[in-house]
Amino acid sequence: MSKSQNTLDAPIDAPIDAEDLEIDPRIYDLYDKYCHGFMSRRDFLKRASAITVAGVSGLTMAQALFPRYAEAQTISFTDERIKANYVTYSSPGGNSGEMSGYLVQPTQAGPHPAVVVIHENRGLNPYIEDVARRLASVGFLALAPDGLHPAGGYPGNDDDGRTMQKSLDRTKLMIDMLNSAIFVKQHELSTGKLGAVGFCFGGGVVNFLATKMGSDIQAGVPFYGSAPPADAIANIKASLIIQTAENDDRINAQWPDFESALMANNIDYERHVYEGTGHGFHNNSTKRYNEAAADLAWERTTTFFNEKLS
């Protein structure tokens, strides 16, 4: 194997000092295509390496975008405010009839309002587990289902996770997520009030749950998620906060029709557009992270859940 092939193929394990590294917009665009499965990791790095800006290699910029999960953890799994474990539960009509998830409960006496946390298009990775812990640390019973459970579970890296998720039956995967929401809503530690938050693919799932669960779900917060079909929006009874990146052409192109349907059906919603951000701005494990926007969006999210699920 040549040195150049090794650079493109090998996992990126050593941290890159990216604190002050400016990422060229073209690299962000390539990364977005890579994240959404439109090109392989190798193709992403190869195309990025053809770009140089002010003496900085596009390959260096591309490598800086890969997630650093250990560095991004905000709530330890040993945090005294929470208790976390992995659970399995029935999922009739899903990809295998069974699902698993990361269930995190506050150590305070329950019951607690429930929130289902939906991952991106790569399974239950450490970032999503951390989001579940963040919710539990402020009083919510949080379940982060692993849509890859029927295929063996999140494999420990996002590239394989993305491939695995793409191989699953999409309709059955959505049923697995619906069953997960029902499971945590009906859990013995739940008050019966249910919210949902999700990111990218998970944001689209939040919208799906809102159209399918009617009054059984009270609050949904999709982060940069695809809009549901216009003819399904009349079924929404939940209140929504729609969290959107300013620079996210694919998702933002859906907004005019989405908004028209929300307004036509008198849905209770707010939309927030975060200036200067791109798709994935809440994910603090990558350089796409925008701390100010992510903090504000999260404050709005938890305040909203406290209002709607109390």
Q: Could you describe the 3D structure shown?
A:
The structure is a single chain. The strands form two sheets. This protein has an eight-stranded mixed beta sheet with strand order 3-4-6-5-7-8-9-10, sandwiched between helices. It has a two-stranded antiparallel sheet with strand order 1-2. It has twelve helices and ten strands. With 310 residues, it is α/β, with parallel strands linked by helices. The chain starts with a helix and ends with a helix. The chain has two domains: 64 residues, no CATH class; 240 residues, Alpha/Beta hydrolase fold, catalytic domain (Rossmann fold). The N terminus is likely disordered. The radius of gyration is 19 Å and the shape is globular. Helices cover 39% and strands 22% of the residues.
